[in-house]
Amino acid sequence: MFTPRAVSGPVGSLGRVSEDAGLFAAGDARPGPKEGSVPQVDPGSPLAVRMRPRTLEEVIGQDHLLRANSPLRRLVEGRGGSSVILYGPPGTGKTTLANLVASTSGRHFVALSALSAGVKDVRAVIEDARTRQLHGRRTVLFIDEVHRFSKSQQDALLAAVENGIVLLVAATTENPHFSVIAPLLSRSLIAELQGLDAAGVATVVRRAVADDRGYGGALEVTDEAVEDIVRLSGGDARRSLTILEAAAGAAEDAVVTPETVELSLDAAPVRYDRDGDQHYDVTSAFIKSIRGSDADAALHYLARMLVAGEDPRFIARRLVVHASEDIGMADPTALLAASAAAEVVQKVGLPECRLALAQATIHLATAPKSNAVISAIDAAMADVRAGGVGEVPRHLRDGHYAGAKGLGNGVGYRYAHQSPAGVVAQQYPPDELVGRDYYSPTGHGYERDLLARLTRLRGIVRGGT
To answer: Record's superkingdom (predicted)?
Structure first.
């Protein structure tokens, strides 16, 4: 088994933090670093902490945000004055960028975690920042997991951000448009960080192998093992280093192979938040793949939801809705298939119900498509909301109660089953809507035949009006 050699010297990336040093480095920063300096990091710290970038040049990816003179780059370099919300998946550099802001000289830096801080903590920081501002010192307030702040906690920041008392740097893995109040959004730039591509993650891994903060060349990682680590990391740089560190601990003769990686970790993480934008994005992609008749893509998104722990009842409901919304009468059996899958979910549950969900997904994806059903009901409801109601024709009204016939209710109604064709000429809609067509079959699937039949039926029914 390979044992990493000790690391010495200034290997950290954490700048000055005031109240919460552990927020960035999990307790690995040594207390009391000077503002703008790079503190020591315990050699026993996790590899991901030791390898955290110390300069912008070491940051991998996010070139779209860090180009010359961009707002985020100016902020990191100490020249920017705009508050920013860093939004993106785990392991893309949100905390790293906050670290770099912290190490910028001349600014006071305070870090709060939304997991533990309250309104009282926020107000204390603001009061301290107001005092420092009087002496020409700017305060940068970093809030990690800002989406976990309540509305009142976020409200407490507004005036201070707007008046420039604090320069806010907030980080979140959830879409801020869902989790951050609109007034705070309008006062901040939103910087969306992207998951690292395969080349970026591979660079992170190889740097850790070669750099003295990591393994200093004392560990060999085969190209195939790097590929496996890249695949398993899902674009998360921190995750890739965690996998590498676990594999190094299991390595024989200081060589990491695919087999070593497999022993260390047997499943790739799935980024999916059941209450945030990933939930909506993956669900949207799932439905759009079915609508687009790509069964393979639909199965991929179904698998992502299932592996991430999505409620199978939610998936079943989406399939039932989709069966009518995007298939409808082009394949009347689609609704039956989706409803059957929903029943299997209720009666059987996971893991077996995944088969019924997959079967229904394939059925719907490969079925002919038509949105004529949703178009028909939406058009009919629009007419009703616009006042297109009218009186029910008297011959269609209930004529079973005493005195009904005296009012003319039910009089003249023609019973369709008395006709050999099973359909008769008769007015059914209110006078205002005679001749109004709502349902327009497409030429797809069963609707090809239905179009001709519907045309004949309308001709017979409306022949007497």
So the answer is: Bacteria
